Amino acid sequence: MKKNSKLELKNKFQSISDLPDSEWDVFEDYCSIVRYKKGEVILQAGNFESRMGLITEGLVKRTILSDKGKEFIQHFGEVGTFSGPYSAILLRKPSAVSITAIEETEMILFNMYEFQKFYDRHKAWERIARVSLEKYFIDREERERQLLVLDANQRYEAFLKQFSNCHERFTNKDIASYLRITPEAFSRLLKKK
User: Fold this and answer.
1) What pLDDT sits at residue 3?
2) How far is CA 167 from the centre of its chain?
3) Which end of the chain has fewer beta carbons closer than 10 Å to its terminal beta carbon, N or C?
4) pTM to 2 decimal places
5) Per the structure, how many domains does the chain have?
6) Residue 45 belongs to some domain of the structure
7) 172: helix, coil or strand?
């Protein structure tokens, strides 16, 4: 476990808004540090989860299964990003997605229902939530645009830019799933490069 892991979450929050130390001191008690082994399922689709987390070490993938059991990677989460089933939390229903650790991963988890209670305590909490959700929305919209208008080669180029610090840590199978092409098509794409 990294020393001062919770400090990373505090710093992330304070980079978004001027969060007083006194507010953090109260919220910190609601946070827990959890480590996951490579390949460990953090959240299984169909289960209810009320926690979100900041990834402080490792990588995760967020997946959806088709009716035929085919896995589609919706998103990769890297250090410094939040991960969790936010829409399921808001709707108070089981998650439609699974989240799995691609490698040994550490997250700082906090219960979103508790987090929402802090909105009335200080304006910084609402700003943190709003700015985080705005970033999430922007990322999702860009991902949808790529899937709708870019060809596989262009999607791969965008993937390399987005994950420039960690793309070599993903398997080719996972990258192909993320790009929405078969592993064979991805192999051909790589040979052309």
Assistant:
1) 53
2) 15
3) C
4) 0.91
5) 1
6) yes
7) helix
Tokens of 35: 């480590």
Query: Does some domain include residue 178?
Result: no
Whether 145 is in a domain gets the answer no
Residue 126 has pLDDT above 90, yes or no: yes
pLDDT tier, 2 (very low <50, low <70, confident <90, very high otherwise): low
Spatial CB neighbours of 96, under 8 Å, sequence gap ≥ 6: 45, 64, 85, 87, 88
Spatial separation of the C-alpha atoms in residues 44 and 23, rounded to whole Å = 32
70-100 pLDDT per residue, tens: 899 999 999 999 999 999 999 999 999 999 9
Which has more confidence, 20 or 192?
A: 20
Q: Which domain holds residue 37?
A: 5-124
**Is residue 148 in some structural domain?**
no
C-alpha 155: how far from chain center: 19
The alpha-carbon radius of gyration of the chain (Å, integer) is 18
6: nearest Cα among 23, 27, 22: 27
Q: What is the CATH number of the domain that holds 85?
A: 2.60.120.10
Q: How buried is residue 141: exposed, middle or buried, by Cβ count under 10 Å (0-12/13-18/19+)? A: exposed
